[in-house]
Each structure stands twice: as C-alpha cells, then as structure tokens.
Amino acid sequence: MSQVEDQSGVYAVPKLQSEAQLENNLIQQLIDQGFAPVRINDETALLANLKIQLEKHNKTTFSENEFAKIVNHLNKGSVFERAETLRDKFNLQRDDETTFYIEFIDQIEWCQNQYQVTHQVTMEGSYKNRYDVTILINGLPLVQIELKRRGLELKEAFNQTNRYQRHSYGAGSGLFQYIQLFVISNGVNTKYYANNRKQSFKQTFFWSDRENNQITQLEQFTKTFLEKCHLSKMITKYIVLNQTDKILMVLRPYQYYAVESIIDKVMNSVHNGYIWHTTGSGKTLTSFKAAQILTNLPKVDKVVFCVDRKDLDYQTSKEFNAFSESSVDSTDNTQKLVKQLGDDTKLIVTTLQKLNTAIMKERYQSAMEPLKDKHIIFIFDECHRSQFGDTHKRITEYFNRYQMFGFTGTPIFAENVSGNQHGKRTTKDLFGECLHKYVITDAIRDENVLKFAVEYIQTFKQQEQIKDLEVEAINTKEVLEAPQRLEAIVDYIIANHDRKTHAKEFTAMFCVSSVEVLTAYYDLFKQKKDNGDHNLKVATIFSYAANKEDKDANDLIAEETTDMTGKKVNQHSRDKLESYIGDYNAMFGTKYTTKDSQSFYNYYNELARRVREREVDILLVVNMFLTGFDSKPLNTFYVDKNLKYHGLIQAFSRTNRTMGEKKSQGNIVSFRNLKQATDDAISLFSNKNAKDTILLEPYEVYVQRFNEALEKLKAIAPTVDSVNQLQGEEEEFAFIKAYRELMRTFNVLNTFTDFEFADLNIEEQEYVDYSSKYQDLHDKVRSNQATEKVSILNDVDFELELIHRDEINVAYILKLLGQLKDTETEEDHKAKKESIFNTISNDPKLRSKKQLIEKFIEEHLPKVQSGNDVEAEFKKFWDAQGKAEIEKICSEENLDADKVTKMISSYLFTERLPFRDDVVNAMNEKPKLLKRKAVSQRVLDKVLGYIKTFIDGAPE
After folding, report:
1. Rounded to an integer, what distance in angstroms lies between the CA atom of residue 874 and that of residue 883?
2. What is each CA distance from 782 to 168, 791, 837, in whole angstroms?
3. Mean of the pLDDT values across residues 632-648?
4. Cβ-based neighbours of 254, under 8 Å, separated by 6 or more
5. Do the domains 452-694 and 253-401 match in fold?
6. Which of 49-63, 128-142, 527-541, 870-884 has the lowest average pLDDT?
7. Burial (0-12, 13-18, 19+ Cβ within 10 Å), 14
8. Domain boundary assignment for the chain
C-alpha cells in the first residue's frame, strides 16, 4: 500500500476506501458517462420521476388519472411477469377515450431510452431498507448496484440483495420488482447477475473482454458493462425469460461474444463459422439466443437447429421451449419438417437424419424446391460429430444461400482427426474460422464448471487365475472381462459410493466397454442387492442393434439411439434390456418395454429425468448419455472403458456442472489406465500446461491445506471453549471465515478413497465440536436478523450444507436413545448422553429439535422401561408437545385452531409452505392494513417454526 505525507511531515498509511467513497466515485463516473443524476428519496419521488420519464420517452403527457392506470398496470405479477410487462406495450385508454400505446423500453433502438442514476432510495416493506445505487431506464429501476467496502466479501453484497428482495422490493407499487440486473462490488471485485431469487452465488458472473480476460475492478466494469448502450442491449437482447421455471437468465460474457460474432457474420458476410465453448458452459442457452435473434433479422428466412439423434431432438426442443414457450415446433417426422420449411415457422429444431431425408427423397422435391434460394441459417449442435458424414455435403450442394454455424466443446483438429469416405476433415475444414473460443481452463477459472478429481484404482489383488496386475498393466480382453475383476470393481463401488456422492446427495454414471460387459456388471449389482450388500438404485439403457461393435479406444463416442426402426436386433441383448427395464418398472411403478419403439423412447426420456432428479443412484451405460446429457446432481463418473481426446473430455464432463458449495469437483474413478489419455486430451482442448488447472491436486496436498487452515483457526480460537471468549464481532467473523475454509477443504478431502482422520492434525470429535460452535454463531446471526440488529455478520454465508449429513435424523437419534436407556454403567451413560447432545448440536436440521429432545432425555427417558419402549414413548411425547405448541401459537396470536390445523394438514399433503395470506385467513381478528404485513409475517414465522420443528424430519 502506498504512503502519503501528512501536515507534520510524518508518513502515514491511508485508510481503505470507504463504502461511501466507492459509491460517490461510481455515481460521478456514471454521470460522466451520460447518466442524468436525480434525487429520489422514497417511492413518492420515484413515482413522480417515473411519470416525467415515461412522458419524455413516449413524447406525450399523462393526466393524474391516466398515470394511475399505468401504475396499476405495472403493479401486477411476479418478477418474471413484470419482466414480460416491461417488454410489452400498454394500451392506455386516455381520458378522452382514445387509445395510446405506451412503451416502457425501446428494444429495437436500444440506445434510445432515458438513463438516470440515483442513490440511497428508501423503501419500507416488512423492514425499511436503503439501497446503494440505482440505475433508472425510462424511470423504472432496472439495475440495482450494491456496494461493500474494499476488503469485505462480495458474497455479503449478494446476500444483502436477497434480503432486500424478501423485505422491501415488493413494497408500495412494487417498482423495484422491475430490476433486471444486479451488480455487486467491493471495488476490487465486481459481478453481475439476473434478478432470479432461485439462484446461488455461483450464478453471479464477472464481465470480461472478448479474449476472456476478466474485468473485475469497479471503474473498468462501469466503463464497459455499464456503458449506456451496452447496458440496455444486455437488458433488451441478452436476458432470457425462461418460461418453464419462470425466471430471468442473463448471458455470461463468452456467450454474449459468441452470439454477437454469429450475428456479425450473418449481417456482414456469407461465411460460416464455429463456436468452441467447453462442455458444460451453457451451449444450449447460447445457441438459443443466437437463433432467437437471427429469426428476427429481416434478411433471414429460416433458422434450422440441427441435432444428430432422435434422443437429443426431444431434449433440445424441450430446452429451447423452456427459454421461450412454443418458440420451437419440434419435428416428429420428415413430412412435418418439409411443411415447416415451407410455412411461416421461423425456428425449427430437427435431426440431421430427417433433414437429409427431406433433401434426398424424390417425393419431397416439389415442396423443397422453393427453399433453395432462401436465406437459411443452419445451427449445428455438437458439430464435432454431426457434420463429418454425407449430410454436410448434401446441404452445401442443395441450398444456394445457406450459412452454417457449429457449436462444439471439443473440436476436431489435425491431432484427433479420423477419416471416412470423404477423407480426414477438421472442424475448420467444414465450418471455417472459430468465431469465439472459451476453453475448459477459462470455465474453471470463472467457476462456471468444476475441476476433475481423477483416481486410478487397482482393480484386484492376487487371485487364482489372474496375476497381481496393477491397473497400468491391464490390457487384454481376457483379463479386463474376468469375473473376479468385475466383481472387485462392483465391491469397490458399493464400498465407496456414499463417500464419493456425499451420502447419495449426488449421483453417478458408470461407463463400460460393451453391452456384454454391461450385462455382467448389472447382474452383479442385482445379485449383491438381493443378498443385502447394498441398497443402490441402479438403472441402465443401451442399444440392442446387432453387430454394434464399440471401438473401445476410438476418439468419438459411438452413436447409440433408441430408434431401432429397420435395424437388425441382437435378441440376447434385447432380452437382457427388457429384463432390466422390468426391474426399473418394479422400482418406479412404470410399464415401459422395448417391444414398442415409442415406449422405449419414453423410457429413455423418463430415465433421463429420474437421473436429474436424483431418483437413480448409478446409471450404467456403454455410450448413451455420454454426450449431450446434463445433470447437475451427477458428480461421479466410474469408467471401465478406454477413452481418449474428444470422447474422454465429453464423458468426464458429465460430472462438472456446478451445484452449490458441497459439489466441489467432478469425481472420476478410473478402473483403467487413462492417465496418458487424460493428459493428451487436456493438452489438445486447452493447452499443455493446463493439467494443474483442470485436475484436482493429489490427496496429500489437501491434507496439507487442511492442516494449514487448521493452524489459522487455532490462532483465532486455540480450543473449542475459547470460541466463547471471542471479543466482538470482528473476532467472530475471523473465526467464521477460518472454520468455513476448513469445511471447504474437508468437503474435498472426504471424497478421496484414501481419506482417514488420522492424517489430520485434529481428532474427529474436536472437529465436530468446532462445528457446533460455528453453528451457534449462525443461530446468533439469525436472531440478530429477526430483531433487525445491525451486525457485520448478517450477510455472511455460513454454507451449512457442508455440515449437514443426510443419514442423521430423528430416527437415528431414537436408536441412540434406545442404546442410552440400556447402558449399564453411569460412566457409559454419561458418555453416550454427551455424544447424543453433540450429534444434535452439530446437525443443522436437528438443532430446531434440540430443546425437545433434551427435555425428553431429562424428564421422560428415566421413566421408560427399556430401550425397546423408547420409540413409542418418544412419539407420545412428541405429539403432546406439538399439540401444546399449536395451542400456544393460536392463543398468543388469536388464531382459529381449526384453520391452522387445516393449514398444517395441507402442507403435509402438498408440501407447499403456507403464505402470509393463509395466516391472515386464520386470524380471528384481522389487523389493520398498515400493520397487517408485519403482524402476518410474525405469525407466519411462528407457523413455519412449528413446521420446521415438529413436522420436517419428525418420527414416523
């Protein structure tokens, strides 16, 4: 840090820039960039300014009555519905009974809007909040900027915007529900994200330049991202309204540059190109936005999005329609495709096979002929595999004014090119130049995808027929498919699956070399499940076409499809699969079969859904699902198959989607020696020095990192009890950050097969005891927030999901209580009792039940006859306490007990938490309007507290 000389001539270290200074500098920079400053203290001023700005933008004036109609129109719906309102025009009936269309934002000439900046607007909802810096466009608050002083965590600002969303954005006329983008900054780091309450901090993004260099400093971010025209372009063009989830999504910088590059090519050239964006970086969203914008260009007649399998046809259409409902008519057959190509359908999703048929078959020629001279844009999904056959040649020869754009995470280069009847052709040969590149190292740096933790497992020890071979030496079919080896691998998976998937919070895929080997594995899993060795839900799917030999070491993943029309069938494989689908039907109460092609296709789609929803623990495959399948909860990939280059990266990348804090990496468990193949693939698709960026460090490194983090923790709190003596919130904050870092490292360590607590410089009990103190501080912060006490800890993210263990619940505690009752010595009784108290304290979901369980232990357990009677007595106690709590809440808040009981019953049936309106309906006397929100929120908090304590996780 630089030094300055004060008036005495003595050099002093300057103070860190304050939040107020950061705010003032930002406002001045925005004013210099053309934003008009305006003073808005409250909603009254906000509405008055909105009237002036809408009049200016629409070149008219409104009477007070007319403006009241506009505000009434604006004050409807959710954040998502208001985003739609913002982009629509409003047909205002004027006082003279004429109509006038009001525009809230100009989406065509996006620079032609009114831009203002204000700060410290105060709104009062459940609580009174004052916002830092607000950017108004045409008078509506569309961008909210929250600042923290330098040195504070950026996540604090993120948590603060979430709190404002809960507390006050919906207050009054709800104009702050029109926020489209949030910007958070501490001066040094600056990120942006869409207004979507469902997202986590991992859905916040740094802006970057075209070469993927991050722009983190607030001043430079303001200069580039908050430039008036760019900002309104992001809002009008690059925010996606996801119709399925009813949320706003904003493109990340690399997605923006890719779409801009494609549009530039279409507008200013006749050339093609391809986008190289690494697997898992959001290719579907990028291609959708490109397609959507292209369909709106007057010079474009059609946009045809091509996938290369029927399987992906369904998935891609579903994802496209999620972004914009009914924007895509997915083609069920070639006849329908030809019809869509001839009518006014602008955006079509189809398969290469159907497109090829439309071009080739004589019966479609008269309908297809007029299209030859139309300007058609072809966008190819996964162009690394879809464009190296005959179809590419036929498209280029058939259409006269086509342009082609491909998306791939793994291009074909000279190093990994394989030939066919057309020769050896690379992605560049077919599509021309790479328009934008975003490789796996960029994505990992930006935390858009995860690193891989690769473990190579020795598959067996000395056995009768097989020598003691380490994985590096296994290279013959006889050895690879030996029953002893396959059983050893199954035993390894059963033993380690919980560790790899955090007690089945995540799921896994198991990729094997052939259908023959797959059936051997499946039968072993089933046999061991019948024997009671595991309770894993294993499902499978594969192609049963005859003579479908998998070239095990090939670069490209061999194609498998559910469409078996006209194909020769391997009856043995089909019978096996029919049996396995029968197991699936028994597991989930379904009736799928291979004997009906539509039923088999439906099985594929439902299986994909159940994997995504964590209803299947292990998906066993040969080639299906290894490309084009996204499932965030999938964190582990078991592999007994030779992979290389494109195929290896594609397969590994099934695991690297981000999902909360606990999913810290994608686990790759290899039962073959893929080390050199992994190194080669990383080098080809990033660079030769990228291995350390893409792969997790060895186990020993994380042990060292944990022990170093432990030293820092002990410097703050040398013992567990010393946490109680921390002086003030600054010391508590330091402890929270130190223990949180310890948890993050432990979360990674715990997934290694080699992990043992003995390697760490702390006993397991002491680690857990520190966890209890950490959660005590979390409870204290929650209490502060409830009383609106100002605290520097209010915005800390405690990441409690890193502590929670699914296997510990009330049923587990009841088992411990039974053991406690049957202890024979006082010393043993005391130790078990202390252990139970620690277990309750250390699990977030049990802490709400802590006082009740302790009360049962102290007052009721001594009266129970034996450990076998504990469960029944506990349930009587639990029901009585729950009934007393309901009576207490109803008495304190003057509620109708029957209505409250119905509210609770409704939650048990629908799992929908009650709303404030439900609570108001249960009140015997309704509070006055001014107090209704505060009173109903207080009562709702009590009802939700009851649900959390007495219903969620209660004994069955």
Report:
1. 14
2. 18, 11, 21
3. 93
4. 208, 212, 277, 281, 436, 438, 442
5. yes
6. 870-884
7. exposed
8. 19-250, 253-401, 452-694, 699-802, 810-951
Which backbone phi and psi does 295 adopt, to 5 degrees?
Answer: -65, -20
At residue 210 the predicted structure's pLDDT band, cuts being 50, 70 and 90, is: very high
> Average model confidence (pLDDT) for the chain?
84
Separation CA 875–CA 879 (nearest Å): 6
From residue 647, give the alpha-carbon distance in Å to each of 410, 554, 558, 678.
9, 8, 9, 10
**pLDDT tens-digit map of 177-205:** 999 999 999 999 999 999 998 888 888 99
Q: Is the pLDDT score of 383 beyond 70?
A: no
- The β-bridge relationship of strands 133-137 and 115-119 is antiparallel
Q: What is the full DSSP assignment across 740-790? A: HHHHHHHHHHTTSTT--GGGSSS-HHHHHHHHHHHHHHHHHHHHHHHTT--
User: What would the two tokens of residue 789 be?
Assistant: 């006490």
CB within 8 Å of 577: residues ≥ 6 apart = 540, 541, 542, 544, 594
The architecture in CATH of the region 19-250 reads Alpha-Beta Complex (3.90)
Between CA 272 and CA 387 the distance in angstroms is 13
Residues 613, 618, 624, 625, CA torsion sign: positive
What mean pLDDT is predicted for residues 409-425?
69
Q: What is the DSSP string of 776-841?
A: HHHHHHHHHHHTT---TTTT----GGGT--TT-SHHHHHHHHHHHHT--SHHHHHHHHHHHHHHHH
Across the range 143-156, mean pLDDT stands at 87
Name the DSSP letter for residue 696. Answer: P
Q: Assign domain 452-694 to a CATH class.
A: alpha beta
Looking at residue 4, what is its pLDDT?
35
What was the pLDDT predicted at 238?
96
Q: What is the largest CA-CA distance in the chain?
A: 98
CA distance 522 to 543: 15
Q: Which CATH number is 253-401 given?
A: 3.40.50.300
On whether the CB atoms of residues 395 and 359 are closer than 8 A, the answer is yes
Least confident of 546-550, 775-779, 940-944: 546-550
Half-sphere exposure of 175 (CA within 13 A, CB side): 30
CB atoms within 10 A of CB 733: 18
Domain 699-802 top-level CATH class? mainly alpha
Which ranges constitute the DSSP H helices of 653-685?
A: 675-685
Burial letters 149-162, b for 16+ CB under 10 A, else e: ebebbbbbbbbbbb
What confidence tens digit (pLDDT) does each residue in 459-471 have?
A: 644 343 333 334 4
Per-residue model confidence (pLDDT) at position 785: 55
C-alpha distance from residue 448 to each of 254, 330, 612, 655 (Å): 11, 29, 19, 13
